[in-house]
Write a structure and sequence with these properties.
The protein has 218 residues and is an all-alpha fold. The protein folds into two domains: 85 residues, Endonuclease Iii, domain 2 (Orthogonal Bundle); 102 residues, Orthogonal Bundle (Endonuclease III, domain 1). Helix 2 packs antiparallel against helix 7 and helix 3 packs across helix 4. The longest helix has 19 residues. The protein is elongated. Its EC number is 4.2.99.18. It comes from Novosphingobium clariflavum.
């Protein structure tokens, strides 16, 4: 996909959804961080169900530490890997209290040092909390980037680096949201719904599914 096509790709998605946001529910930067950590290998819908009651009770790292690991587990036991996630959330909360005065750091290097926080999680937090031009490559963005030709790469980091080079202004802050939502609801893994895709004519994918009743070509 060339520069003009990439610009038009994001222009159309931006026109349809001018203010894209994460589908995770949160009330402040700390809750966002917790929600993103919990969302690893889990759905946003599942995380939101688990955190609604939790976030009414816990709004700060200090309150999370006071809740404790066992108390946290009771809230998030419906989420995959909840035991290890509870341990990480308590540990990162203790670090935020001890080192950062209970605030979430804006720096990627500081974020990835927190337990349970990888590069993707850090990029989400930096983008959603601080408006940074970061590209959090999850399975949806990895698929959409490679399938459309916007950003091809064999690893999430390779796709992220391509996005950093190729996504133009004024779409850089919102781009990863548009790509996630596009991959989640239209450019699906098994059968992309090309028949209703607003950017189908720009996409490099060769096996487009243009008939609603058809299956993806082998």
């Amino acid at each position: 996909m060339n520069k003009a096509a990439i610009f038009e790709f994001f222009r159309r998605l931006a026109e349809l959804n001018p203010s894209p946001e994460t589908e995770l529910e949160f009330g402040n930067n700390y809750q966002l961080l917790v929600a993103v950590v919990l969302s690893a290998q889990s759905t946003d819908v599942g995380v939101n169900k688990a955190t609604r009651a939790l976030f009414r009770e816990v709004t700060t790292p200090a309150q999370m530490v006071e809740l404790g690991e066992e108390g946290l587990k009771e809230h998030i036991k419906t989420i995959g890997l909840f035991n290890s996630k509870a341990k990480n959330v308590i540990a990162l909360s203790e670090i935020l209290v001890e080192r950062y005065g209970g605030e979430v750091p804006e720096d990627r290097d500081a974020l990835v040092e927190l337990p349970g926080v990888g590069r993707k999680t850090a990029n989400v937090v930096m983008n959603c909390a601080f408006g940074a031009e970061t590209f959090a490559v999850d399975t949806h963005i990895f698929r959409v980037g490679n399938r459309t030709g916007i950003a091809k790469g064999k690893t999430p980091l390779a796709v992220e680096k391509q996005l950093e080079k190729r996504v133009p202004q004024p779409f850089r802050v919102g781009s990863h949201h548009w790509m996630i939502l596009h991959g989640r609801y239209i450019c699906k893994a098994r059968t992309p719904e090309c028949w209703r895709c607003p950017v189908v004519d720009l996409c490099d994918y060769k096996d487009k599914v243009l008939d609603k009743g058809a299956k993806k070509a082998a």
